[in-house]
Amino acid sequence: MDGKNIIPYIDPIFRFCYRRLNNRCDAEDLASEILCHVLEGLKKYEIESLDGWVWRIAHNRYARFIAVGKRNSALISDRELCEVENDYCQIDERSVEEEFEPVFKCLHRLSFEYRNIFVDYYMSEMSVRQLSRKYGLPETTVKWRLNAGREKIRKWIGEEQMEKVYQRINWNTTGCNGNMDSDRYLHTQIARAICRAAYEKPLTVEEISACTGIPAMYIEDELPRLEYGEALRKTGNKYVTNFIILQLADRAGMEDILTPMIKEVADYFEQILWGRDEELEQIGFYRCDTGMERLGYIFIPYFLRKRIQELKNGRLNLPDGDFPPRKDGGYGWFHIQETLDEKEQVTDHATGCYSLHDGANVGIYYYWIKKYFDQRIYHNGGLEWMFRHNILPHSPRGIIPGNILTEDDILRLLEANLIRKSENGYQLNFACFTQKQFREACGLFAMEDGRLDDLLCDSILAIRKTFEKFVPRHLHSQINQWVASFSAEIISYVAEELKQRGKLTKPDPDRPFVDGVFYVEGENIKT
Fold this sequence. Notes:
The chain has about 525 residues and is an alpha+beta fold.
């Protein structure tokens, strides 16, 4: 490598010096000094990256120039030229990095409309006129963005806390109230960090970057996807999160609301559900002989969910509202919950209902409690597969015809505990009703009880008020649909209480628990 290689650096090095010293004579002196050191080094060392090496020398010599007060120097002494070797061997990379690192961090926090102009102006040495032509902007706009960008950087550098501590955001992002794929938009840590930052109030890209420490360019890459999924809403040049986040601390406070009523609600269901086995068997639905110790996992959630919804929408006038249609074709709301660890599992007390129905003849339902939930029951070739292949309509009295399942199907459904082997072949392992049978079974149990209604109403209102305390005002319209799902968690507490009393079966830890699964022929029931 010879001296010709540094010719392209002569003009940039001079401009580098002139911009910092604002004095042509000093700039010429310093540029000459830098080039002399570069030429001397080329004779002595093998340079792998000329560009990086030249600019390290430039930064280092500039720092020395300022430190020793050489603003009036015009010559380089022989002694200083002899110090060239030390210059290269002991380039103070750390001091240079420390000097410029905050600037580069702040540059990454600028949105693209500022950042691109800054890079071209300071790194590419483009003039305001050239920038105006490149970006199709008036020169006054270019100058304004440069000035505004400088002010932002000055402010950020002056902040006491420049460093951000990156911690994993543990959210369960699989939940929704409706039909949508929440995790599609919120499975990445960047997406979650953006939404957490913009949760309380609308923020610009730069403000989100300041809150998260994520460079603006990465935030800008993520924003279109979050907007399309309606996880964020854009208002002007700001973005705000469009869903409620249930934090662990807030959840703990609301669980305390449910605790005092558990025994009383359990007493109520023990009184009205148990002791009716003979009447249930007379109705004659498939698996009616299993008794309330298993059927209770169907009737308790059915009645409680139904009553909570009726009271909330009627007596308390707290309707969920219409399911909002979404840009991606789905409908409903995100249900996002903070979790304890990176497994991102919701609390054991979470409950819900998966339903599959064709609107006329087939309805498959799965009341689940998170503590006993098993993916094999609904997904992975379970109930969804049975629904798509019309297994249940072709299985009268629960007996599955021998020609509709392959050996692989049988093995998979046995592992999911959805079928069982009997003397008649293979049978369904959950209750099946006709429309008439389901109505008759429900009709055995009178649910009119003023004390239970009062308990449920008090808890619903208390949960609603608690949500209002921690949910940002712009998301208050989404609270009611959260209230219904959280109020329904009383189901898991009541089931646990009745299990401890010996009234409900204890799930086998070695097999998927399917007692909450049932089929209703000819009716789509409200779950």
